[in-house]
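sanity check both lines:
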Amino acid sequence: MEADRRNADPKAASNIPGESQIQIGLARAHLGLKQYAEAWKSLEATRILNANDPDVYTYRGAYYLQQDKIKQAVRELEKAMRMEGIGRIGCRVFAASSGVALLV
């Protein structure tokens, strides 16, 4: 995958997802299928690759919300909201749809 990225046309290279984005996509798919063990593996792989990505914590929050683990979900979503980026929007959407009040 990395070789493909280096050899790609520079204009198209930005459209090739990185490993972190692929793992987030896998986590989302597994969450949608309620395959929680597999979702967690992808979320952990993403966290290891890029712990500064707010989406990691947004989807970890979704992981916990889907299992009614509200305290853990709030912790993860608040962490994502303290970070910059699209994570803020995702957190608000997940929280609002689940009736969870966030402190950040």
Residues 19-32 form the longest helix (14 residues). Helices lie at 2-7, 10-13, 19-32, 36-49, 54-65, 70-82, 87-98. The two ends are 37 Å apart (CA to CA). The domain at 2-98 is CATH 1.25.40 (Serine Threonine Protein Phosphatase 5, Tetratricopeptide repeat).
